[in-house]
Amino acid sequence: MGQDIIIIGGGVIGCTTAFFLTRAGLRVTLLEKGALAQGTTGNSFGWANASTKTENEAYHRLNVAGMAGYRALAAEFGAERLGIHQTGALHVVGRSDAAGFRAMEKDFAALQRFGYPSEWLESGRLQEETRGLELPADAAAILLPADMVIDAPRVARALARTARLGGADIRENCAALALIADDEGTVQGIETAEGLITAPTSLLAAGSAPVLTVAAPTPFGVC
User: Fold this and answer.
1) What DSSP element (H or E) covers 85?
2) Given this model, what pLDDT does residue 221 score?
3) By the 8 A CB rule, do 194 and 223 touch?
């Protein structure tokens, strides 16, 4: 029997998608050419924030929604288990950096307008809050208590385990070799070293991996 969806890539995006689609009742196969969360996810700093997304309000609010999703997962499974850390952040700029200071003021105005948790700290308050740190004497800062640090590999592996328990087919060390398409160009499945897996929908979540080739269907080796 074919699957409902094939996800290519076992990083935080692929594993999170597999978790939610499996929970929704879909038949999911996830393909990862190596070990889970060892590619882009394993080599990225997981700063979950909307504080640096101030130029476009829609994009800012998309990131706010993503942060809410992480908080919901932490409430359900435990922040420590998933590696979700509510650290907050501090954006510090000295007034001697005129351009940088103006940019920080602009960012703060946008964050206030969007309703994002943020507080302006002048030099005296900043020095009190950061004892032990050497900061420019003329510095000010934006305090951002909602920002989080995510251990993305831990999140990915934990959600993959939960998806597998829910019936998802999570395949490590199983590279996707080619998209299999019909004469109209509609993708019918994925060719792997373990055979052809059929599904009406495929999701590429492989980070910086090379683009797959497209091949005609084969009648052999269907999984």
Assistant:
1) strand 84-85
2) 44
3) yes
